[in-house]
Amino acid sequence: MDIFPEDTVSSATSSPASSLYSPSPHGYGSWVQELSHDQQGVRLIGLLYQCAAEVAAGAFDRANLCLEQINQLASLDAPHTLQRLAAVFADALSRKLISLLPGVSRALQYSTAASCSGEAHLVHAARRHLFDTVPFMKLAYLTTNHAILEAMEGERFVHVVDLSGPSSNAVQWIALFHAFRARRGGPPHLRVTAVHDGGKECLASMAAVLAKEAEAFDIPFQFDAVEARLDDLVLLLDTPDALRQVLRVRSGEALAISVVSQLHRLLAADDVAGAGRTRQQHVPGSSCLTPVQIMARSSPRSFGELLERELNTRLQLSPDAASSVVSSLSPQSPAAQQQRTPAAAGAAKLGRFLQAVRGLSPKIVVVSEPEANHNAAAFMERFEEALNYYGSLFDCLERASAAAHHHRQHAAEERARVERLVLGEEVRGVVAREGAERKERHERLAQWGRRMEAAGMERFGMSYGGMMEARKLLHSMGWAGSYEVVHDPRGEAFFFCWHRRPLYSVSAWRPAACRHSGGRLGSS
């Protein structure tokens, strides 16, 4: 059964906006009890949009009022997806107001700084659970490896540079060992260079695991570690050949570069003033939320269906709020100019890095990114896109949790950690932060294509064989149906979809001057 049935949605679209969206100035406890569960869900969506619009307009008192009401309807330990998602977004919206409106801190659901530091070790476990329960990273690794395998056909010395940082996983390269071991002519001499800021222990552990597996497969193997963030590599670009030296790129080796869900972080500008303003608003321990125990029993598609329909019925802003939003985002306004400046600087930083990568003469560069537009200058545009996108990811997790019949309590607790520590942090990155600290600047494949081509790269199409391998994985893991892998319209990239909504993309590139026969990585 859906949480919010069709008749609730249709009644929402036909009701006056004032009755659905306008915050009640008094009687917080009573009005919630007067609404049915379905009406509460509809109201939550309206309140989230209302609150975001008031934040964009700088109407802090009205935003605070919206947050009060959202917290009456939503919480991180609620049984339904929409309620938990709304709590995460309320937290993010609150963080934009916390320094100017201390009363808004009631909407924040986090513990003390000491408690937050105590939970830091749980982030890795949460990421692992996300990897295990939804297929996107597995699909990214598989299709990346397939593209590398085809591009390296006949090569005897192969160097793979892993720029994925926190998204890197030894599992990806163990799978590549399998693929190379089975290829005609035997495996090449393989070298993997991993760029990661997780510390020496993390890199040493990856090195040990890969060395053991390579020995088992009788593959000549070498592992090089670069303890750094992707951002740190950009600092090397002013020194000739520094990037080549740090990544240990050598002549005589065929170079492949893999970067999973990291390139967007380079779009964050080196905007000192913007970073300073953001840091002033930062609250120690604010990235940590109170632990919760959740039992999930809801339909995974209900929120997506409701939101899709509700987005067609925009909340009606007050005239003052609407005019403030329009004024603040007009091309001539100082606010709009300030918003454009960091974006332009970030794009320049990314462009320089991509040009430096091109200068390394890789045979292939495989890029995996979230398929979303979270880099818009306009706050409301980012908010709407994020609400859609993360609503889908919350639904994915809900389905996985509900499917764990024998360990449902444990699965719900693990899902709660992912929602708080991984997805919740990303939502804060999109919604609450600005300037250099807004790292979650996801863009869609079309925009990545323009950026890559501007840096002197050309598409190196993903093969049909890679898509079939990805579909086999979905079937073997029981993910087929809800998830699917599709070619982009030009047949040169893959989209990983949840109920036909693309959530991730994978594309392959090479230096434009490096032209081989054909334009695709293979067809088998």
TrEMBL record:
This protein's UniProt keywords: Transcription, Transcription regulation
Give the top-rank taxon of the lineage listed in the UniProt record for this protein.
Eukaryota
Instruction: State the residue spans of region: Disordered.
Output: 1-23
Low complexity compositional bias: what residue ranges?
10-23
Q: Give residue numbers for sequence motif LXXLL motif.
A: 263-267
Location of the region described as SAW in the Swiss-Prot/TrEMBL record: 432-510
Motif VHIID extends across 158-162
Instruction: Provide the family line.
Output: Belongs to the GRAS family.
Listed name of the protein:
Scarecrow-like protein 3
Q: What is the native source organism of this protein?
A: Urochloa decumbens
